[in-house]
Amino acid sequence: MSMLTRRRLLSRAALSATAGATGAGLRVGGTAATAAVSGGLATGCDAGTDPDTDPTDGPRGDLRFPTGFRWGAATSAYQVEGATKEDGRGESVWDTFSRTPGRTRNGDTGDIAADHYHRYADDLDLMRDLGLRSYRFSISWPRIQPDGTGTPNQRGLDFYRRLVDGLHERGISPMATLFHWDLPQTLQDAGGWENRDTAYRFAEYAELLYRGLGDRIPVWLTINEPKTVVQNGYLHGHHAPGFQDPQAAYLVAHHLQLGHGLAVEALRATGSDARIGPALNLHPCYPADDSAEADRASRLYDGYENRLYLDSILKGSYPADVLADLGPDSRMARGIRDGDLKIISAPIDLLAVQYYTPYYVTATGDTVTRWPTSQADWQQIYPDGMYDILTRVTRDYGPVPLTVTENGLPQADTLSADGTVDDSGRISFLRDHMAAAHRAVTDGVPLESYHVWSLLDNFEWAEGYDQRWGLIYVDYPTQRRVPKRSALWYREVIRANGL
Ligand code: FCB
Q1: Do the Cβ atoms of 322 and 308 come closer than 8 Å?
Q2: Quick one: CATH architecture of 73-496?
Q3: Which pLDDT score is estimated for 59?
Q4: What's its EC (predicted)?
C-alpha cells in the first residue's frame, strides 16, 4: 500500500482536532427572526433589511426549481431516536463505541439523543408545518434484528410503521436508509464488515424490511456513506468500531458494496416497484497547484474518495489506479470474488449524493485548506463544489436520477432570551448551495430532490452534541423543539419552490 494511501488521514478528524472557528467567513444577515415558536412554525422570516444586501431574506423567486422537485430534510436513527434499550432493541456498535471512555466528546452517547422515538408524532407535525415533501430517515438494524439475524422484532417494525404512516398522513414522502452505521454488536463480534457474511446478513435484514414496510416506502437507500465507515471506522478509528487498519478498511469497502448490491437484488426479487440506490458522500478533489504531480495526486485521491464507490456501482469495475495503489495482495483485492462486481453494479434507480466539502490535494498527496471552515474543521465552505460534483456525476456516469440527501452546516447555535435561534449563517450556506444545485439542474443534471442535514439537532457521532446541524433547535435538558430562523426561511423556499 502506497505512502499516499497511508497519508490519507484527513477526513472528518474528530476529538483530536481543535474545532475551527464557528461559521468563519460566512455572510451573516442583519435581523433576527421575529419569533421562532416551540411546537409550530407560525411565524415568517422577518424582512426588515434590504433584500439586495441581506442574503438571509426569504426567496426572491429568481431561481425556481422544476415542478415536482421535492424539498426534504434528513436524520438517522442513532443520531435522533434515543430509547436505546426499549422495545427489544439490541446493542449496536455505536452503543459500544460511545460508551467507551474517550471515544466521544464529553462522553456523549445516543442513549437519549433527540428522544425522537417518543416524540416522533410532534416531530412529524413540525415537518408538516415546515412544508417538507420528503423525509429521509434511517432504520435501526438492532431494533429490527436485535442480534443481526433471524425473525424481526415486531415492536421495532411497528415503530417505523407508525412513523411512515404519520408521514403519509401529512403528505410527506418517506425515504428510508437501511443502514446508517448502527451495525448490531453481535455481527461486529463476528467480524463486522470485515466478514463477508455480514453483507448477506444485511440483505436478509433488507428483505425483512421490504416485506414488513415495503408497501409504504417508495424510496430505499441502501448504505449511508460506505466511505465514512471505511475511513473513520477502519482507517482513523474516530468512528465505530474504532480501528486503524488500512488492510481491513478496504476489505470493508468491498463488503459494504457487496451488501449494497445484494440489498438491491433482494428488493427486485420481491417484485416491488419501489426505487433504490446508494447514499454516497462525494468530494470534488482539485489539485492544490498547477503542477503535474498535484494533478496526478488529486486524481488518485479522487479514486479513493469517489470512483471507488461510483465506478463499482455504476460501471461494474473498481478503478484501476486505486486497485494498483492498494496492490494485488491487499485484503481487498484478495476478497473480490467472481461475480461480486456484477452484484454490486445491479441497476439502481437513483443515486443519493451527500456534499459537504471539497479537497485540495498537493503533489505529495496531502490536503490543504482553501476556504473558510465551519465548526466542523473538516468542512470547507465551497458551494461551487455542489455544482461540480453534481455535474461531474452526470457527465461521467450518465443521466442517473440524483437526489441530494445531505447538505448542511454545524453551528454552536444558542437559544436567545426571546426564544429565538438566529442561525443566519446556516441560511447563507443553504442558499448558496441550493443556488449551486439549481445551476446544475439548469445545465441538465437530473436532480429530483434536496434534503437538508439535518431536520433536528442531534448526536453528531464522535462530536457528541456540541455541533448543532438542525433546522430545528433541540433544547436537550427539556427536549423542547424550537424552529431556528433557517427553518422559517426554508419553509418559504419550499413554498416558492425556489430561491
Ligand atoms: C454525514 C453523516 C451524517 C451526519 C453528517 C454531518 O457524513 O452521514 O450522519 O453526521 O455527516
Answers
A1: yes
A2: Alpha-Beta Barrel (3.20)
A3: 82
A4: 3.2.1.21
pLDDT in tens, 198-225: 999 999 999 999 999 999 999 999 999 9
* CB 123, CB 129: distance < 8 Å: no
What are 184's strand-pairing partners?
A: 92
- Determine the Cα–Cα distance for residues 327 and 1; give it in Å rounded to an integer: 6
Look at residues 292, 311, 327, 242 and name the one whose alpha carbon lies nearest to residue 6: 327
CB 459 less than 6 A from any atom of ligand 1: no
Domain boundaries, the chain: 73-496
Q: How far apart are the first and last CA of the chain?
A: 47
12 backbone dihedrals φ, ψ, rounded to 5°: 40, 60
Alpha-carbon distance 243 to 103, whole Å?
Answer: 12
Instruction: Determine the average pLDDT of the residues in 233-249.
Output: 98
Can you tell me the distance from the alpha carbon of 278 to that of 308, in angstroms, rounded to the nearest whole number? 13
379 in a known ligand binding site:
no
Question: Measured in whole angstroms, how far is the alpha carbon of residue 147 from the centre of its chain?
Answer: 25
Q: What is the pLDDT of residue 60?
A: 79
pLDDT at 54: 60
Q: Is 463 annotated as a binding residue?
A: no
CB 97 within 8 A of CB 239: yes
Tens of pLDDT, residues 418-433? 999 999 999 999 999 9
The edge-to-edge listing of strands for the beta sheet with 359-361 is 285-287, 359-361, 367-368
The model's pLDDT over 149-205, given as tens digits with 9 standing for 90+, comes to 999 999 999 999 999 999 999 999 999 999 999 999 999 999 999 999 999 999 999
Q: How far apart are CA 309 and CA 312, in angstroms?
A: 6
Q: Is 360 in the pocket of ligand 1 (CB under 6 A)?
A: no
> Residue 6: what pLDDT?
38
- The whole-number average pLDDT for the span 101-124 is 98
| Sign of the torsion formed by the C-alpha atoms of 277, 110, 81 and 451 | negative
Q: How far is the CA of 498 from the centre of ligand 1 (A)?
A: 25
Taking the CA of residue 281 as reference, the ligand 1 atom at the shortest distance is 7
- Separation of CA 407 and ligand 1 centre (Å): 9
- Confidence band for 68, pLDDT divided at 50, 70 and 90: very high
Q: How far apart, in whole angstroms, are the C-alpha atoms of residue 396 and residue 319?
A: 13
User: Residue 120, annotated ligand binder?
Assistant: no
Confidence band for 58, pLDDT divided at 50, 70 and 90? confident
